């Protein structure tokens, strides 16, 4: 592929960002060995930057990130892309507002996923970030569009940027890769807290109207 | 605002302390991403120093801490202050002995909070630091004085420097910011230990008289 | 022993690899103090490289790794080899495709082992790496071939590279030491996730045919 | 006190060891803030070296360790010694084979302690290090010899180097400070593993004869 001049600088930045963001997955212990990845859409192009498959987090560099088109075909890079590339490409093709996707098998979220049980919204922090429960997507085998379709169909019916894929793990989305990583970090945090809460009884529900009120404020007011 | 000369050095010290104390929140894994904060009263002035909103812990510096008055209005700083500023300002206005406030969503304490269940005092370390159970405050939405009022009313009826706000998280107070951070660290530690204890049975209660005896000794004798 | 010239370079490499791989055991908190070890077969020779007994992970170097024959007799090294040497030598003698062995008492896997309960395959990541449940081997005392024989007999009837030895801990195998370490890391990860899942209900089973499909793809397609 | 010349070098070494060993308590997360300590007997003298009270682990140095006699009186040092000094001095006075004592409130061990429930010996690693169950000592208030007496009376009837003091935490002993730290690390590790095992069923018991066999081998053969 010949990359036009105007995208060269964008690509350099995205490669550095995607590579560096994997350090948040290890910092928060969302991944072991090589089992999780971050990708970013190249804005204005049918392209994405993603982790190479089976490479240790310690060995990631901007240069070994893989550039693919949105059919998952490699456009730049010597390494095979993540085995989740097809699923993430599907998400970018069908959800145009999504600029970043993250996949992990983080412990507590994956435990809920293995029971096919959504995480109920019983924390103000969950209302803020997820706007309600974190939903469960279908069981789907790798190898065709089943996982991507499951992610997209589940997230379209939800305010949540995270979906628990049954028996599998978590996919999160965001306006950019950093936002998707944040959603992955928050997803595991609330999955763990609600799990711990449920071990000794039932959390108090938060009325739907107050969930919405918290979600609206957080999405519009929080941060700089 | 024109800060008078005599407060300049105090402010420099407090900015450095408040910034640095956030490292204890990450060290003990009481917070993820940007979801927790420390503040300190400026002694002798109706002012407080607090974390900026939505800024990563790695990026905190003495310079980007925000100086607010006790109505939560920014007096110095280019960044918006923590979204918990109003609640913490309320605490400083109504509890004059408080010099520091900390807010976290630490996992085990927040799990108790989501069940609206106080943590029973079944550890000598809890008697030492908290003087009894750690109480639960009301469910309260962000945006007015509800959270601050809930904190103050709950803590006024307790020896505990920590309150579990229902469905939300923990607020702790102390004579200074370091003492409030210590209370936040100890609160999560005892929340976890008592949770674990309860998973396999009932902890042995400690008689009230001995709780008081431990509390009095620890507050007066422990340390240098 | 006189080591022939052609094996000198191989040994240097293996000593460095085996020493360094112990850092993965501590990174993922699979071991405490000195309670776990890695070994590697010397390809083409009846020799193995293994951790010295009772030495802290901080103090491991390529030079203090111990070279033993496959009866567990020391061939090079001033220190006594791991007390698990006999068990691991037995594995190398009876499973010629094995190039690396790891032993840990990692928390969650050992908890399953103490109940003599195999870990059911309810995660796609488990199907990928283990091809089904992680089986339990017999209770066996240290001091003769009981442990080695228990490992070999259990793994011969399974696709899993990990075995939970009853009341004891985990042994994993791989084509080389790095693969065995990966299996140990993944074993603890799935042991923890399935434990957490089971605490609040029953995970959804994955049909056997789909377990096999996932296993075949992962063993043949994943990575570079 | 005038310290005789021959003990000067011993003291220098012990101060460095005791100070450094606290890093193992934080490494294995057995302690938070300042809530745990290590001491060592000065061999051949009625003296002990112990952590100062309420000082952060980051701030410990060989120089600020406190030298006390075995009545707990300070002999060298500008800081007050640990509030556990009296209990540890009692142990040194009554158990002449003990060269090191450690105290922590590590989470899982303290959870068993709060239920006054001994940890059953269902792991080979427990048989190795503890020779049977880890026993529970009485509830005792700080301030007189109650804690020390409870530790000594409980450990005299046991092969275990660790005792769970009811509602309080763990005390461990060893031939030197390093051995006592090892026992504290192992105690928390087995407390956690047996807790996790018990959450989903009953661990398989290990027959008493085999516990003894494992204990005898480990105490006499393991390590260098």
From TrEMBL, chains A, B, C, D:
Reported EC number(s) for this entry are 5.1.3.4
Which top-level enzyme class is recorded in the Swiss-Prot or TrEMBL entry?
A: isomerase
Q: Please, which domain of life does this record's source organism belong to?
A: Bacteria
Reply yes or no: does the keyword GTP-binding apply: no
For activity, the cofactor(s) needed are: Zn(2+)
Instruction: Tell me a GO biological process for this protein.
Output: pentose catabolic process
Domain Class II aldolase/adducin N-terminal: residue ranges: 16-195
**According to its record, what are the GO cellular component terms?**
cytosol
Q: Which reaction(s) does the protein catalyse, per the Swiss-Prot or TrEMBL entry?
A: L-ribulose 5-phosphate = D-xylulose 5-phosphate
Keyword field: Metal-binding, Zinc
Q: Which GO terms describe its molecular function?
A: aldehyde-lyase activity; L-ribulose-phosphate 4-epimerase activity; metal ion binding
A Pfam family that this protein carries is: Aldolase_II
NCBIfam families, sorted: PRK06557.1
Family of this protein? Belongs to the aldolase class II family. AraD/FucA subfamily.
Q: PANTHER family, per this entry?
A: FUCULOSE PHOSPHATE ALDOLASE, L-RIBULOSE-5-PHOSPHATE 4-EPIMERASE SGBE
Identify this protein by name: L-ribulose-5-phosphate 4-epimerase
Native source species:
Aeromicrobium erythreum
Lineage in the entry? Answer: Bacteria, Bacillati, Actinomycetota, Actinomycetes, Propionibacteriales
């Amino acid at each position: 592929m010949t990359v036009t001049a105007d995208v060269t600088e964008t690509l350099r930045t995205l490669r550095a960002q995607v590579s560096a963001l994997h350090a948040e997955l290890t910092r928060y212990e969302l991944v072991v060995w090589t089992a999780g990845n971050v990708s970013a859409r190249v804005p204005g192009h049918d392209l994405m930057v993603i982790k190479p498959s089976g490479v240790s987090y310690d060995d990631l560099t901007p240069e070994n990130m893989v550039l693919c088109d949105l059919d998952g075909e490699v456009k730049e890079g010597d390494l095979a892309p993540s085995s989740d590339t097809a699923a993430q490409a599907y998400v970018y093709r069908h959800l145009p507002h999504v600029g970043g996707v993250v996949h992990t098998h983080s412990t507590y979220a994956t435990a809920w996923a293995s029971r096919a049980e959504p995480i109920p919204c019983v924390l103000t922090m969950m209302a803020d970030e997820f706007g309600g429960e974190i939903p469960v997507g279908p069981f789907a085998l790798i190898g065709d569009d089943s996982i991507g379709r499951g992610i997209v169909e589940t997230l379209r019916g939800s305010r949540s940027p995270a979906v628990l894929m049954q028996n599998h793990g978590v996919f999160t989305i965001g306006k950019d890769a950093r936002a998707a990583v944040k959603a992955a970090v928050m997803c595991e945090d609330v999955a763990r807290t609600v799990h711990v809460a449920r071990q000794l009884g039932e959390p108090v529900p938060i009325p739907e109207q107050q969930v919405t009120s918290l979600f609206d404020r957080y999405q519009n007011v929080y941060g700089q």
